[in-house]
Write a structure and sequence with these properties.
By secondary structure, the chain is of the alpha/beta class. It has a 6-stranded mixed sheet with strand order 7-8-9-3-10-11, sandwiched between helices. Helix 3 crosses helix 4 and helix 3 packs parallel to helix 5. The radius of gyration is 18 Å and the shape is globular. 43% of the residues are buried. It binds adenosine-5'-diphosphate and magnesium ion (MG). The site of adenosine-5'-diphosphate (ADP) has 11 residues, from strand 2 and helix 1. It is an enzyme of class 3 (hydrolase). Keywords: ATP-binding, Cell membrane, Hydrolase, Membrane, Nucleotide-binding, Transport. It is a peripheral membrane protein. This is Amino acid ABC transporter ATP-binding protein, PAAT family (TC 3.A.1.3.-). Its EC number is 3.6.3.-, 3.6.3.21.
Amino acid sequence: MSVFEIKHARKSFGDLEVLKDISVSVEQGEVVAILGPSGSGKSTFLRCATMLEELDGGSLCYGSRFAAKDENGKSVYVSRKERHKLYAQFGLVFQNFNLFPHYSVMENIINPLMVVQHMKKPEALERGKALLEKMGLSDKGDYYPCQLSGGQQQRVSIARALAMNSNILFFDEPTSALDPELTMEILRVIRNLAAENMTMVIVTHEIEFARSVADRVIFMADGIIVEEGKPEDVIDNPSNERTQAFLKKFE
Ligand code: ADP
Ligand code: MG
């Protein structure tokens, strides 16, 4: 059974049709990389997948639990209460880290645990400490985000996403706000998660990284999936001319 499945997803902003019938299903332990030009709808896809935006049409489910069903071409969402329960099913790591600036590093990690999962503070702190250690940030719990490098901030936001023990993590260009050295630092962290069998969907422009870490690559353009398959097929031997043109820019 898939961990995550979105079927026939459609999303428009006014007259702009951003997602046009996108279907993606992700299996346990699978790493899926999404490539595509800027403006093709990758972030919108992730925002709909994580319920930050509502689909206009199509269905969305996590494991056997539906967030939205498609009824006559229109997405019908479960109740607010049911939706809230689904938030623990996934984590999202943003391009710009999205940490709360006025909370300490530790508070950024444990507050969602206490609020969403109603975890008691001592237990949340224990998990927070273990995650900071895993991210090589044991001594940074009392710091504020602005006191950390971009790479460190992104590691905090990965720790925050991991804290929920979610079934799947989504990443939206996790390294695009970082310089090359810090990019390598974050890619290493994600690679380690892949080695631990974490299920992940990663939007990235790091082609080499996608080739080496992904089980499957999806190439998106203009709100549709143009091509998908194994990295060696999509990246090294693309059959679609739009994929070819996009990848040429990275040579
Ligand atoms: P990508 O992440 O692939 O660069 P996006 O999903 O961010 O693409 O954007 C796809 C298109 O949707 C762009 O034309 C963008 O301007 C538009 N768009 C995204 N979010 C909104 C929004 N909240 N309101 C209006 N237009 C939006
Ligand atoms: Mg984007």
